[in-house]
Proton gradient regulation 5 (Salix dunnii), 119 residues
Amino acid sequence: MATSISATGFKGGFGSSIGGEDYAMLVKSVPNRVRVGKPVRLAPMMKNVNEGKGLFAPVVVITRQVIGKKRFNQLRGKAIALHSQVITEFCRSIGADQKQRQGLIRLAKKNGERLGFLA
């Protein structure tokens, strides 16, 4: 292999610049694996999106603050279950099928959101 020395300090032939000592140092300086950090995600907010919306929202919010969140959620669950039972009985009395019953329950939920009962 021919070796040449010039003013720039190049040593060795063309092959030594790729496969020689410089390449070995370059390989050692580069990490084997590149770690990519996880994308930054904000923590989920546990806030009600219906807070303060609707006609009955202020009453609902004040009631929740007065009786406490746990007791309020228990009462809300019982009220929703009772309302679903009323809708089911109504559907039985008029002969509506399961799909129509589910549609009425969804409609009741949307109306409750608009009026502020789910605030």
In short: Residues 56-115 form one domain.
